[in-house]
Amino acid sequence: MILMLNIESVAERVLRDEELSLQEGLELLNLPDTETLRLVDAAWRVRRAAFGDRVKVNVLLNAKSGICAEDCAYCSQAKGADTGIPRYRVLAPDEMVEEAKKAQAAGAQRYCIVLSGRGGTWGEVEHVSEATRRIKAETGLEVCACMGLLLGEEGQAKAQALREAGVDAYNHNLNTHEDHYGNICSTHTYADRVETLTHASQAGMSTCSGVIIGMGESDQQIVKLAMTLRARRADSIPVNFLLPIDGAGLDGHQTTAHFTPWYCLRVLAVFRLFNPRAELRASAGREVHLRSLQPLALLIANSIFLGNYLTEGGQEANADWQMLQDLGLHAASGGAVQAGQTELAAAGAD
């Protein structure tokens, strides 16, 4: 059934904190290209009410690369992937701190320490904890850790140790819908990812959990993911568009063949309208799949990664800053997510 939504009224309803339905999300995702600018405008109204003209700038550190026994089909670092990426053990805390200072000098507000592998060892937790304590003492950066699964009592203990060291957020993406997860990974489950987010949240860390679009998922699964992340109250949602990588289990050349810049903007808008208070990040693949329409993504999302993505190159940092300047947008100060939630609630009450 097609509901023939009034796009402007959708924005009004979201600002009043009304939840959209699955059918409404499907209709938004399948709008014609000629109507997509109206959808971008609706998403911009919601984004502006929560975050104004601010953009959260994040920098990634690939602190351990390519040594992983998991078989995630999309990943260049997975077991069996033949992608020629660098492979190295976890960096020393001194190296993490040095790179953090570079990130701060580049204008970042959040520094994301990422380790490949199923889950961090206690030695790796101690490395990241030591680095975090120093980063918090020597810079003004937020710290986000991404160290794989946090399962069982040991996972809870590791999450608590990271939080006590000062880690602000933990990243663990759901990546795709539960019904599709078995098609992209066999070495762990969707439930393992949910448990990890629960333990991170219970330890007091903000949860950063997003998606990778372009792995053969259906439109319905995309909208349901947006709904799931709202139900889980994810604080930060990175929306990645799969980068085709030769040698990965899922190289992506076929599963992203239908992408157009207008389609990718509609995906971002759906995640924004279903998650109006979340820090929505236009992440990997934005340069490749949005192409010349990439600036419009920042009227929907309010967060980006500056520079490169783990094993894949991104847009030059100065090009990102120029894009933000041209849009009249500015780097956010710390605590932008919480401030955005308060401002949106006030807007919805008017």
Verbal overview:
44% of the residues lie in helices and 13% in strands. It is of the alpha/beta class. Strands 1, 2, 3, 4, 5, 6, 7, 8, 9 and 10 form a ten-stranded parallel sheet that branches.
Fraction of residues in H or I helices: 40-55%
Strand content: 5-15%
CA distance, first residue to last residue: 32 Å
**Main pleated sheet:** 10 strands, parallel
Q: Secondary-structure element sequence? A: HHHEHEHEHEHEEHEHEHHEHEH
> In angstroms, what is the radius of gyration?
19 Å
Overall 3D geometry? globular
**What count of helical segments does DSSP give?**
13
Poorly predicted residue ranges: 334-350
Mean pLDDT: 91
Instruction: Supply the helix-strand structural class.
Output: alpha/beta
* Number of E-state strands: 10
